[in-house]
Amino acid sequence: MAQNTNNSMMKDIQEVLLSEEKLQQIVQDIGAQISRDYEGKKLLMVSILKGSVVFMADLMRAITIPCRIDFMAVSSYGSGAKTSGVVKIIKDLDIPLEGYDLLIVEDILDSGMTLSYIVDMLKSRGPRSIRICTLFDKPERRMAEVKATYVGTQVPDAFIVGYGLDYDERYRNLPFVGILKPEVYGE
Ligand code: IMP
Ligand code: MG
Prior knowledge:
This protein has three helices and nine strands. It is of the alpha/beta class. The strands form two sheets. The protein has a six-stranded mixed β-sheet with strand order 4-3-2-5-6-7, sandwiched between helices. Strand 2 (about 45-50), helix 2 and strand 3 (about 70-75) form a beta-alpha-beta unit. Helix 1 (about 20-35) packs across helix 2. The radius of gyration is 16 Å and the shape is globular. Inosinic acid (IMP) binds near residues 51, 160 and 165.
């Protein structure tokens, strides 16, 4: 693929999974769907930092109805590639949730441990409704019971980076999504 051949991060990428163009197509489609479904509702999009920041920035501009945004930071991965099952709130929301139709925006639904914890916690704050929108889904890795209403696309059980997704805080700025070479994370 011609894309980013002079990008020094490319040497760590085994294969480009989704091009910039393909990602934009996916995001536009979800944006149109959300705009239809949330017409007349009080939409609050909550992005889970930091992985979903790039997706959130594109998705909110693909939404044609009024909406508010907020951010929450949790940690579940540390700096490694495997989930720890431990979820810690690092930054909480600014907006009280009563009366809002909450849409949680996530980068990737993997074991589901992170989101199942977040959904339970946010439900207790009394939003009118709560749904999940995830760009990527790895269904075969699911450990916790979590269902996303909006899913961009399923991805294989490989470690992917780019378009916000990181390994050890790197590669988030790649404009496409690629499979990271296993030797980069020592397997
Ligand atoms: P879960 O609790 O296992 O569902 O973890 C979800 C979080 O793990 C995501 O928000 C990502 O930050 C991270 N994650 C899971 N799989 C990947 C991947 O393939 N690449 C980068 N981050 C990942
Ligand atoms: Mg994340």
